[in-house]
Task: inverse folding
């Protein structure tokens, strides 16, 4: 059994061998009736419940860019039931454009996308099978309107990325 199986909800052991459930112990708890178990015995059935993990936000960045979230930011999730992140976001500064969310899991760096350090970039929802505590950061661009050398009006956009340690909770 893989520990990345959020869809696995029930196991019925039809064999004559006791089967260990340790492969999923970091993300799921298994129950036989109301009793929590770590193995499934022959002829028995067990049901899983995902473990709950915490979600925190880079509150320093939310304050710095005066980002107002319309709705409630989720503070936790259960493995296999990833929450959606709010997309109705207001920014007080007209030069700052909210572009979405990005996040890190358990403080580890995962390769993905152009930044090569974030689990995902510009997301509206966490990846399926996400496991572990999550730190969420707003993605913002600084936008300026200028005239170029030929006097044409152009928009200049700069992605603002910040290190994790400076903007922790």
Result:
């Amino acid at each position: 059994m893989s520990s990345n199986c959020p869809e696995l909800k029930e196991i019925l052991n039809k064999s004559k061998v006791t089967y260990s459930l340790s492969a999923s112990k970091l993300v799921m708890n298994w129950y036989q009736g109301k009793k929590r178990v770590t193995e499934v015995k022959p002829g028995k059935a067990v049901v899983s419940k995902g473990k709950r993990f915490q979600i925190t936000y880079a509150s320093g960045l939310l304050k710095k860019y005066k980002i107002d979230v319309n709705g409630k930011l989720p503070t936790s999730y259960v493995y296999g039931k990833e929450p959606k992140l709010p997309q109705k976001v207001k920014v007080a500064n007209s030069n700052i454009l909210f572009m979405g969310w990005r996040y890190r899991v358990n403080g580890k760096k995962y390769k993905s996308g152009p930044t090569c350090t974030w689990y995902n970039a510009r997301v509206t929802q966490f990846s399926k099978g996400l496991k572990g505590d999550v730190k969420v950061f707003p993605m913002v661009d600084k936008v300026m309107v200028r005239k170029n050398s030929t006097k044409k009006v152009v928009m200049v956009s700069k992605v603002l990325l910040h290190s994790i340690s400076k903007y922790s909770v």
Observations:
- Helices lie at 59-64.
